[in-house]
Amino acid sequence: DAGVIQSPRHEVTEMGQEVTLRCKPISGHDYLFWYRQTMMRGLELLIYFNNNVPIDDSGMPEDRFSAKMPNASFSTLKIQPSEPRDSAVYFCASSAAGRMSAETQYFGPGTRLLVL
Amino acid sequence: GDSVTQMEGPVTLSEEAFLTINCTYTATGYPSLFWYVQYPGEGLQLLLKATKADDKGSNKGFEATYRKETTSFHLEKGSVQVSDSAVYFCALTTGDTGRRALTFGSGTRLQVQP
User: Fold this and answer.
1) pLDDT tens across A9-66, in order?
2) Which residues contact A62 (CB under 8 A, 6 or more apart)?
């Protein structure tokens, strides 16, 4: 299996532009997570899905952020309009269903976003 | 809410030295505990995990024991190698509340010198 795939790996954009990050989870996994990593706040959950349905979006910073999962093999995280404070590494992770909290999450390589 | 506290880094050791990275947690219910490792420029990889009290997770010479009485999950390795240089994250999920998302500590950078 190729693991979790994220694209692009790097994104540089200007403030005010729309940014779309993409994720393909591991085939057969039922859960998909979006995390953000910054120096100031560390690793934090943005949103996660179960069977394509958003379960917890309490970490989504504000209305400028939106996430979708139109099918089991694809998810997007969109920022519109982007701001310099959105600069971070965004990770996608997926996990199988199973015993509720013990399933391993498999992380993608991340998208490094820089908003100028 | 749930939280994880890790020792501040960086931790700098010589090759073959003993490693301990402290991790304590606060959680409702009975969490599952994890150690993830992040190598430069890469995503996180699971290193080991433990799902109930007194369980010991182990992998690649690393070990950690789930201590409910002290709410701790310290990471240890008897003899580190240069290739162990990375950032290590302690994390938990809280099964009773059904929240599958990981709550992470701040990470501890390990630097192993030859």
Assistant:
1) 999 999 999 999 999 999 999 999 999 999 999 999 999 999 999 999 999 988 999 9
2) none
Residues of A with CB below 8 A from B102's CB?
Answer: 33, 35, 43, 45, 105
A51 contacts chain B (CB < 8 A): no
Whether residue A7 lies within 8 A of chain B, CB to CB, comes out as no
Q: Are B23 and B6 in contact (CB under 8 A)?
A: yes
Type of residue numbered A74: F
Interface residue ranges in chain B relative to chain A, Cβ cutoff 8 Å: 31-32, 34, 36, 41-46, 49, 51, 89, 93-95, 98-107
My answer on whether omega of the bond before A84 falls inside 30° of 0, hence cis, is no
Closest CA to B38 of B100, B104, B92, B94: B104
| H/E segment holding residue A94 | strand A88-95
